Model the fold of this input.
Amino acid sequence: MTTQQGTSTPPLAQSLKAVGPLPAGGCTAVVGLQWGDEGKGKAVDLLAADHHAVARFNGGANAGHSVVVAGERFSLHLVPSGILYPSKLAIVGNGVVVDPWKIAQEINGLRARGVDTSGLRISDRAHVVLPYHKAEDAMREDALTRHTKGPAAIGTTRRGIGPAYADKVQRACAVRIGDLLKPDQLKSRIAAAFDLKAPILAGWSPGDGPSPGPMQIGPLVDDALTVGRELAPMICDTTRLLHDTIRRGDRVLFEGANGSLLDVDHGTYPFVTGSSCVVSGVGTGTGVPNRCVGRVLGVMKAYSTRVGAGPLPTELHDDTADRIRQRGREFGTTTGRPRRVGWLDLVAVRYSVMINGVTGLCLTLLDVLGGFDTLKVCTAYEINGVRDDAFPPDAPTLEGARPVYETVPGFSQEISAAQSWEQLPEKARTYVRFIEDFVGVPVEIVSVGPGREQTILRV
Ligand code: IMP
Done:
């Protein structure tokens, strides 16, 4: 075959043979097994040391990953947690919805604290969250809150996540990161959005968007082009970059945001987020075939939490909840909202292990449970008077589920200085073994505090 320029290209079959499949199984994915906030940031930070690149595949600025390095706390929303390793590739994949002003602010904040951000790359195919997405998110939530007899508000983070993903699927007026570098294309897309969204935007009052005053096409396009120029050195085809990285034999760590039970398909719908938070999101959210992922680390707390509305079968409303909330600092990294708290729900965790094909667990915040005489663990539900040990992801069904508990012995107050499995009290080890026996997957990492050093590795 010869191209118009006269250079020859190999026939398709030959080029496929020459390329060959990517090496299978060398990569790792980290996913949350509950309703988010499981401590994935710390798990990613720990595993990043053994990987050449870290890639986010879903979510947006709704996520909040906290990492403590040498006593210094970093809260990351859009930038992958791997950024805290100098010059490591930190990739924001195409499946992420990016608020360009927020990511620019986050990058500048990291640089001001001396963090090397030279490894950061943003997919040109990631979708952009614009101020009108946040306005739509807020207006929809407010409308649903007023609707006492209709569907309940989701309790979103109001970061424009759902509306940005909706535009992506709707296609007519979506803006991708690459469009921020193409003035004419950007202008026509934003103009189309204004036309289509006019009835909604008529009621818009600017919140923390970039342009003061009523939203106008011209200033918004200008602001978007300005931030696009700032981000330009980081914008590229990350799919190709990831393929090149893996083909070289380097290992990639895929960082999931939010949590499996907030997954748009497999979570407690409709009280979910807009993206694929489970491991299959790696394929769609980065362009890397899932067969490259050989290890799936599922991160779970030693108890349950949830922010926003939706069923949480083991929820507590008593002193125990207050104690866990205070000790676990259970207040949202993104919104500051107090998190709802409950006993560990192993029915829910086992479901998440199943849909993700989890190969090992990272158990976080075990120290928070220190000092209780006994602990409760949910091992089945009673739904309409019938006992069932399967998880129903449909929200109305789950709302009616009554948890069936097993009571296990508590352990002593202070385990946050434990450096090894042997240094954990026997009753804490019994709690860990109870979890792995129930879900059928080993607990590979136990976290007993926020610091990198407060980690017990069992592999
Ligand atoms: P959205 O993602 O802002 O649309 O919010 C949808 C639901 O997911 C709400 O209940 C949020 O509180 C929840 N949510 C989204 N991201 C996170 C997260 O990273 N941690 C915990 N909850 C989250």
Notes: The chain has 13 helices and 20 strands. Residues 1-16, 206-213 have pLDDT under 50 and may be disordered. Residues 90 and 120 are 5 Å apart (CA to CA).
